């Protein structure tokens, strides 16, 4: 039995040394040290030995088993290291190869305009206010002097969800909500940027979804001259100090008086061309003095407080500033169009 154990040990060590991979090594472990292996068979035959021989034979079995186990562990460490080295060699990166080009992103044209306008008005002491895009009929219309039967509602063909809930048609509801929060106490000085929605046919100059930035100032002794001065500063910062502005009478239900604001044409310097339709002027936004009814509905005393409001179409400003001739370009995500704005400062 002793000779058998020595033979098994020599045989196992030879196979361990010759093992080429971890699978072969594991097979050797199972073959010699497993429950059905030859060493286990030797242990089972120890019952036939005398009481004096059993301890000696048991000690020998343990030595053989430990010797084989130790050799397997040492061989396993070698094979694992070889496997790691082989994997590293197969995954080597040639750092001398040219890298793949990384596409450089940039701000969207509309994002640039919104941020530029916000910076201008924040510099004049305004705060940025936001509100929900899904709005109630009250804040979208009634609080802005547009009751249910008012014909001016037809000016804004709306996306109604229910009879009282709709997608906001302008950012003026943010103004109404802000005035309400002030509980009749001025001053109020905000701009309200955001998306608005109207049922319109998409073409080069119209979209069912677009962006607005509306402004509101309420305080004592606010007049039309304050409005004109504010818009003059804003428009000259956006389009250049050489541009002139003019105000034309208009109508908006929430302001009285109301005015359209034009800037002088940059192409013809006011002499008339195809861009300005031979007028020398280009319309850019609408504005006016806040209607007393709007003030009163928000809790302000219209005899003590007055104010002005204006509405800026972000896409229109961007089209005029960047020379874009189709509003749909802003929403197609065509990388060729977007890359044109790389050279503009962020």
Describe the fold and architecture.
This protein has helices spanning 2-18, 22-33, 38-44, 53-90, 109-123, 137-140, 172-182, 224-239, 292-297, 314-322, 335-338; strands spanning 127-128, 134-136, 165-167, 188-197, 209-219, 245-252, 255-264, 281-290, 306-313. With 346 residues, the protein is α+β, with helices and mostly antiparallel strands. The protein folds into two domains: 2-90; 109-341, BirA Bifunctional Protein, domain 2. Strand 6 and strand 7 form a beta hairpin. Helix 1 packs parallel to helix 4, helix 2 (22-33) runs antiparallel to helix 4 and helix 5 packs across helix 10. It is elongated, with a radius of gyration of 41 Å. The mean pLDDT is 87.
What's the SSE blueprint?
Elements lengths: L1 H17 L3 H12 L4 H7 L8 H38 L18 H15 L3 E2 L5 E3 H4 L24 E3 L4 H11 L5 E10 L11 E11 L4 H16 L5 E8 L2 E10 L16 E10 L1 H6 L8 E8 H9 L12 H4 L8
Parallel strand pairs: 1-4
Antiparallel strand pairs: 2-3, 4-5, 5-9, 6-7, 7-8, 8-9
Helix pairs in contact: 1-4, 2-4, 5-10
Largest sheet: 7 strands, mixed
What's the CATH topology label of the largest domain?
BirA Bifunctional Protein, domain 2
pLDDT averaged residue by residue: 87
CATH superfamily of the largest domain: Bira Bifunctional Protein, Domain 2
Task: From the alpha carbons, calculate the radius of gyration and give it in angstroms.
Answer: 41 Å
End-to-end distance, in Å?
A: 88 Å
Which stretches of 5+ consecutive residues score pLDDT under 50?
Answer: none
Q: Indicate the proportion of strand residues.
A: 15-25%
Q: What is the topology, as strand order, of the major beta sheet?
A: 1-4-5-9-8-7-6
CATH architecture group name of the largest domain: 2-Layer Sandwich
Count of DSSP-assigned helices: 11
Class by alpha and beta content = alpha+beta
Shape: elongated
Number of domains: 2
Percent of residues in helical segments? Answer: 40-55%
Protein name: Phenylalanine--tRNA ligase alpha subunit
Subcellular location: Cytoplasm
Family: Belongs to the class-II aminoacyl-tRNA synthetase family. Phe-tRNA synthetase alpha subunit type 1 subfamily.
Subunit structure: Tetramer of two alpha and two beta subunits.
């Amino acid at each position: 039995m002793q000779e058998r154990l020595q033979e098994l040990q020599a045989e196992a060590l030879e196979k361990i040394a010759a093992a080429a991979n971890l699978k072969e090594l594991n097979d050797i472990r199972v073959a010699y040290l497993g429950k059905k292996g030859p060493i286990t068979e030797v242990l089972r035959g120890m019952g036939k030995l005398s009481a004096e021989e059993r301890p000696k034979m048991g000690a020998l079995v343990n030595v053989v088993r430990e010797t084989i186990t130790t050799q397997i562990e040492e061989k396993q460490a070698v094979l694992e290291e070889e496997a790691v080295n082989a994997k590293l060699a197969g995954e080597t990166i040639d750092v001398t190869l040219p890298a793949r080009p990384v596409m450089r992103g940039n701000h969207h044209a509309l994002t640039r305009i919104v941020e530029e306008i916000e910076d201008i008005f924040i510099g004049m002491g305004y705060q940025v206010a936001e509100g929900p895009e899904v709005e109630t009929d009250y804040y979208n219309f009634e609080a802005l002097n547009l009751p249910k039967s008012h014909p001016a509602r037809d000016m804004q063909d709306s996306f109604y969800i229910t009879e009282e809930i709709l997608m906001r048609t302008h950012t003026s509801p943010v103004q109404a909500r802000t005035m309400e929060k002030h509980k009749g106490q001025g001053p109020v000085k905000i701009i309200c940027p955001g998306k608005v929605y109207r049922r319109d046919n998409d073409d080069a100059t119209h979209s069912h979804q677009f962006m607005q930035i509306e402004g509101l100032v309420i305080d004592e002794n606010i007049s039309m001259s304050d409005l004109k001065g504010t818009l003059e500063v804003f428009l000259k910062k956006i389009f250049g100090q050489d541009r002139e502005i003019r105000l034309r009478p208009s109508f908006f239900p929430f302001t009285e008086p109301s005015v359209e604001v034009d800037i002088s044409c940059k192409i013809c310097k006011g002499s008339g061309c195809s861009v300005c339709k031979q007028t020398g002027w280009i319309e850019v936004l609408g504005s006016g003095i806040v209607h007393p009814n709007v003030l009163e509905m928000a809790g302000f005393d219209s005899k003590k407080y007055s104010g002005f409001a204006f509405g800026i179409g972000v896409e229109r400003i961007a089209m005029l500033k960047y020379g874009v001739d189709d509003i749909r370009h802003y929403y197609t995500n065509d990388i060729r169009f977007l890359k044109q704005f790389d050279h503009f400062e962020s």
